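Good morning,

Attaching, inline, the backbone tokens for the sequence recovery test we're adding to the shared suite. The designed sequence is right after.
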């Protein structure tokens, strides 16, 4: 499945495959399973390294928060408030 994810990223520019994507349903489920295993500390370190090497986002909520916070800081720096 890693090769499928690699191909998905090459085509879409990201590794965030939705479980609701009908064209990539099994890949989306696999991606979710990797995140669950990571959170439970049951994912092998070589798998973590392999996924990380292609920009895999382990925690979508944290990533979204950090992205939005960065945008807020940029806005404040530009606008002064």
């Amino acid at each position: 499945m890693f090769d499928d994810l690699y191909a998905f990223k090459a085509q879409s520019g990201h590794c965030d495959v939705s479980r609701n994507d009908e064209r990539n349903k099994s890949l989306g489920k696999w991606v979710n399973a990797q995140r669950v295993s990571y959170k439970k500390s049951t994912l092998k370190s070589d798998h973590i390294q392999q996924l990380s090497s292609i920009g895999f986002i382990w925690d979508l909520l944290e990533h979204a928060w950090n992205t939005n916070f960065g945008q807020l800081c940029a806005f404040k720096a530009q606008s002064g408030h």
